[in-house]
Amino acid sequence: MDQAQLFAVGVALAALAGVRVYLTVFGVGLAGLMGWVDLPPALAACSSPWVLGTSGVLALFEFGFDKIPGIDSGWDLLHTVLRVPVGAFLAAATLSPDGQPGAGALALGAGASLMTHLLKGGTRLMLNSSPEPASNWTASLGEDAVVLAALPLVIAHPWLAFSLVMGLLLAAFVAAFLLARWLSRLLRRALSAA
């Protein structure tokens, strides 16, 4: 891969880490272990049995906890301190040919993972205000599906994955804005009627 493709891979992995950090690390490590992709030296640690085992088990926990309204917001809050640094590491490790992560790549990865994490957390807080759990489950399963579909795409077609991640981010920001606007109108009507 050339440097431009590595940029696309790094940003896409960082963005995915903002949504499902353990599943992203597990997918990267599995791809390296199975020989589907040659991992840069700094990412080689992801294919260690310890990292694979730990991230795999934690991905299963995250899969379950993320389906429970209220618990998912607590889980997201707790993982704010984890998703952003892991996203920064994934981007910087992907972009460092010598194994030494650069400050610019760390900042780029942190920004990408923070954006997706804040979008996910904010959207889930809004969804938790609805009385029925189906919207929460649907959002959570959608996040799982996006990450599972995007990981192989990142490896096989980095620019397509990068474009899709950026497009989904834009669409999600627009949807979150429209949803917040709708909820604020609904709240104003309820307060004025009371």
How would you portray this structure in words?
The protein has one domain. Helix content is 79%, strand content 0%. It contains eight helices and no strands. Helix 2 packs antiparallel against helix 3 and helix 5 (80-95) packs antiparallel against helix 6. The longest helix is centred in the last third of the chain and has 36 residues, at 158-193.
Question: Nutshell version of this structure?
Answer:
The protein has eight helices and no strands. The protein is mainly α and 194 residues long.
What does the secondary structure layout of this molecule look like, with pairings?
Blueprint: H1 3-17, H2 21-33, H3 49-65, H4 71-78, H5 80-95, H6 103-128, H7 134-156, H8 158-193
Helix pairs in contact: 1-5, 1-6, 1-7, 1-8, 2-3, 2-7, 4-6, 5-6, 6-8, 7-8
Keywords:
single chain; mainly alpha; 8 helices
Structural class: mainly alpha
C-alpha termini separation: 61 Å
Give me the number of helical elements. Answer: 8
Strand content: under 5%
Mean pLDDT: 87
Whole-number count of domains: 1
The major beta sheet can be summarized as: none
